[in-house]
Design brief:
binds S-adenosylmethionine, Rossmann fold, alpha/beta, single chain, seven-stranded mixed β-sheet, 8 helices
Length: 213
């Protein structure tokens, strides 16, 4: 946890419930140990979507569709979401959740490897939510920038690696070292690419919020 636990509990105590379908899908996902966005990221995403009012959203990492359905409730009418997932087991669950939520018309599930699918897509997207394999963010980066329109927003979740990101490579567990170095490279790239303006926000497990200039 990158923010003091008491602070997180306090902030969470102020949160309002989501719609009944989101509450159901969230508790099913937590029961089945499916990783989904935390409460703090849910609020952050809602506010960003209400500010940005995107017409097209791309999500990298659907899992069982929780965040896609949440985004669909806060995007403008007529907006569409393309969301990418490669894990066979999760795809039918996500599809069923989109049906349960009545969102089949506005959410398209793109099945396969994120990088391959991103390469096949055409922009512009107004909002990209990056929430897949953390070690791959740096590989998705050129495609994400290509797919974003001018003024488009890229929100990358879980960028502070539960606090490990500030540790030296050797203080990080061996199995997390690849993610550690690739995430550092990703954050450096986001902050130094002249096409973007980026703010790294210590919320949830860390978010990077970028806009294409
Ligand atoms: C953190 S979960 C997404 C959670 C979801 N955004 C939510 O909050 O409801 C990340 C998902 O990305 C998927 N994923 C990881 N690597 C991927 C890849 N290369 N291509 C497509 N999906 C991938 C995983 O299978 C996993 O379901």
């Amino acid at each position: 946890m990158i923010v003091e636990e008491r602070m997180v509990s306090f902030i969470r105590s102020l949160e309002q419930e989501n719609t009944p379908i989101l509450e159901e899908i969230e508790s099913e996902a937590l029961k089945d140990k499916v990783p989904i966005i935390r409460k703090e990221m849910q609020s952050f995403l809602k506010v960003l979507l209400l500010i940005k009012k995107p017409a097209r959203i791309l999500e990298v990492g659907t899992a069982v569709g929780f965040s896609a359905i949440l985004m669909s409730e806060y995007m403008p009418k007529g907006c569409i979401i393309d969301t990418i997932e490669k894990y066979e087991k999760r795809i039918p669950i996500a599809r069923e959740n989109f049906r349960r939520a009545g969102k089949e018309d506005c959410i398209s599930l793109l099945k396969g490897d994120a990088l391959e699918i991103m390469r096949s897509l055409s922009g512009p997207y107004d909002f990209i939510f990056m929430d897949a394999a953390k070690a791959q963010y740096i590989s998705y980066f050129p495609e994400a920038v290509r797919l974003l329109g001018k003024g488009g927003v890229l929100l990358s979740d879980n960028v502070l690696q539960d606090g490990d990101i500030i540790e030296s490579r050797f203080a990080v567990e061996r199995r997390n070292r690849t993610i550690h170095s690739r995430m550092r490279e990703y954050l450096y790239t986001l902050k130094h690419d002249e096409r973007l303006e980026t703010s790294i926000v210590p919320i949830g497990d860390g978010a990077a919020l970028s806009i294409k200039k």
